[in-house]
Amino acid sequence: MNKVVEVNNLFFSYEEELILQDIDLEIMEGDFIAFIGPNGSGKSTLIKLMLGLLKANKGEIKLLGRSIKKFNDWTKVGYIAQEVRGFNESFPATVKEIIASNMYNEMGFFKILNSDLEKKIDQTLELVGMLDYKNQQIGNLSGGQKQKIFIARTLVTNPDIIFLDEPLVGVDTESQQEFYKLLAELNNELDITIVMISHDVHVISDQANKVACFANDSIFVHQADGFCCDNYFDTLSDNQMWVERHQHQGGENAC
Ligand SMILES: Nc1ncnc2c1ncn2[C@@H]1O[C@H](COP(=O)(O)OP(=O)(O)OP(=O)(O)O)[C@@H](O)[C@H]1O
Predict the structure, then answer these.
(1) What is the Cα–Cα distance from 192 to 161, expressed in whole angstroms?
(2) Nearest C-alpha to atom 2 of ligand 1 is from which residue?
(3) Which part of the chain is the ABC transporter domain (predicted)?
(4) What ipTM was assigned to the predicted interfaces of this complex?
């Protein structure tokens, strides 16, 4: 099995504030890894480092076998940032236009969607169950529907890995379940590696095969199978712990 991400001896600070210290992490092809941990523990920062959006103070990151400093095959990498959920409601674009905006490389000199590319958009929308919404304005969709469109936008380039930064904040429970089902299909059937920041303990027990717990500038990687939430709860503040336990109560995989 190939390594999709390799992080070795990584240190990162924002000016004086040390955020990540001596991090080692391997993400293998086909993994579904959940990043969990308290607010401010460095989860988004590590994803941004893995995407080359931030530069490490020390250490090495390889993405798809290539140093992040030289990596350029961005069609193989999807990223759905937290900011997506704050997407401007009045942004004047249809679902089709949003997806096509990730296909410029394939459109050729005149930036025209030929019938093959149209077909690809349709197939991708079909895959996420949103074909009927192709000509709708993106601003008219619900939070969960928008997230599916952004997944589709990522999928048109056939990525090997998708990073998701807390994609479902503010999305209702039913849409969350549908979205997790979709991610599981992408992971199991298309073998897309998934890295997802989540505060939802259900994701960990039901979807992920690995869990990276962030605490005190470090991370601890567990197999999701034998993962005991109590280890995780130890890293949380009292208030957060209550919320997390409350969300988790009654779950089949509760510790
Ligand atoms: N651009 C920045 N400049 C300075 N400090 C930053 C910047 N971005 C984040 N930080 C700080 O770095 C720390 C880690 O932030 P990060 O967003 O990676 O945490 P997180 O674990 O993803 O948190 P959350 O769960 O709240 O999204 C926090 O203390 C945050 O305030």
Answers:
(1) 5
(2) 14
(3) 5-241
(4) 0.97
